[in-house]
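example protein:
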Amino acid sequence: MQTLGIGLIGTGFMGRAHALAFRQVSAVFELPVALRLVALADSDPVRAEHCATAWGFDTACDWQALIADPRIDVVAITTPNALHCPMALAALEAGKAVYCEKPLAVSLEQAGRLHRAAQSAGVVTRVGFNYQHNPMIEHLRQMIQAGELGQILAFQGEFSEDFMADPKAPFSWRCDPSQAGGALADLGSHLLGMARHLLGEVEAVCADLRTVHTEREGRAIEVDDLASALLRFANGASGAISTSWLKHGYKNHLSFEISGTLGTVSFDQERLNELRLYRRGQEGFQRLLAGPDLPGYAAFSPAPGHQLGYNELKTLEVHELIMALTGGGKAGSDFEDAWQVERITTAIRQAALEHRWVKLEELR
């Protein structure tokens, strides 16, 4: 059996989630290849050594050596956002497949460079929009495509958390506009990616962005804490989205409602194993619960109601990556999809700054 060598850069929360997924995927799916966890890199060599041993990697090294290692076929990048571009470009130049966390880059220019480099390299790329890999989301997507909701009229979505709600929380790289894009990039990119995944391309936006806590530890904050936008989709649907990392009480509130001429569906990531569906003429909303009839779910549990979680979504994402690498499918968001999401977030910032509707065709 062919072996795919895995290299992972970053040992934070997302690094651990990737490591768990790469280890779990072989246990729950019959893969056409074997996986070998070859190398782990981190800016702290002591932590890299510790995590490599704990997570089952052969060795620890710096990220340049990891990319140069001929045993590695796939480079997974889970570093702060500003490092995505140089690391991904180096991996693409080395002919490696790249699995990068979102957002892909800190600017549209960077995202465009990565998109073009991936096209030139001709390798598989994937970006960590893991919420799209929920079997319930795929079920909803098929419902929409089959016309079960009729003509889609509107998408209303929110992604809120409260990890930045404390005004005395310390300054971090997320507060630096050269390294991050505020709540819009951190949370909103997931929501916009989901809207695009379900409804298709966005044609135009108007928006409002706000910085509530303008200073942390004596340093000025220039990234947004709150973002709201109206969307126009190419299929004629309207959209309204909001995102905040200041909303007390919410931990992972990626939620949305899609309405059509025949019904309405709603979803909340904090209740990720269910959908609420209303079909025209029925009495109240129906609760649809995830179960083994949905592709992906049965790999983890043979019974409905037993619940998938965040790490299972990551494992499903890695499974689709591996299948793409072995010619078994094209599911998942690649660098082109991530570039398109970056176009939308850039248009939202421009619309907020210029107080007007911005068409996506203005941004290339």
Q: What stands out?
A: DSSP finds nine helices and 17 strands in the chain. The chain has a mean pLDDT of 96. The chain has two domains: 3-129, 131-301+334-359.
